[in-house]
Amino acid sequence: MGTLPIVYNVANFQKPAPGNPALISFTDVTTMFHEFGHALHGMFANTEYPSLSGTSTARDFVEFPSQFNEHWAIYPAVFNNYAKHYKTGAPMPAELVAKVKRAETFNEGYKVTEVVAAAELDMQWHMLPASAPLQQPDAFEKQALEKTHLLIATVPTRYRSSYFSHIWGGDYAAGYYAYLWTQMIDDDAFQWFEENGGLTRANGDRFRRMVLSRGNTEDLAKMYATWRGKEPSVEPMMKDLGLAPAGR
Ligand SMILES: [Zn+2]
Q1: For residue range 164-213, what is the model confidence (pLDDT) as tens digits?
Q2: Is 35 a catalytic residue?
Q3: Does residue 125 share a domain with residue 72?
Q4: Residue 135 alpha carbon to ligand 1 centre in Å
Q5: Which of 65, 75, 134, 211 is deepest in the core (most CB within 10 A)?
Q6: Domain-embedded: residue 172
Q7: Are the beta carbons of 174 and 126 closer than 8 angstroms?
Q8: Domain limits for position 151
């Protein structure tokens, strides 16, 4: 009863040279926001059973609060609060901020195609029935990717069956899609904030009460839809990746 969680983030950022301040890259900043999203999921946990608490959720949900939290790293009110010149304290020039934002969508078409191919390949292997004969991995892979329109010369298959360990191990079997799925949810969730006044205390409290505090105590898709007011959709993710059709 009333057991408070102890949550900490441990990061491995580069040490500054002696006498110099620690300045971290934007990638590391984003990682920090990501891990802090996991931390909030644990700190706000308010459930009866530890086994259903905080981050003890399904794989295709657990990265949602953390990836969602990354959005705040570049959110103007938050960004302007920390992205200051280390000597003068001046905010980062708007031009440079715009560049950082543009760089976020660099090469996303290529990267997302690699991950979609990996997720489909994983799924195709796991959809083989137990009665299927032994497969020749290269031949199986080729037809699996052809069938899902992912055998693309300009985006060579990055994760091949012979070394793609997430197909078989580490509790991932048939779960590689979780990366894309949680990305879809986190972008969709951020859109809700954008549509409802952004970073406000009321919005944060509502998210905490309806999602972050609840761990794995109810059907996660239902929990999400109740908070969001509808099922998640892929459009916000396409927009964030810079892949939405022009004008949308
Ligand atoms: Zn994570």
Answers
A1: 887 777 777 888 999 999 999 999 999 999 999 999 999 999 999 999 99
A2: yes
A3: no
A4: 34
A5: 65
A6: no
A7: yes
A8: 108-167
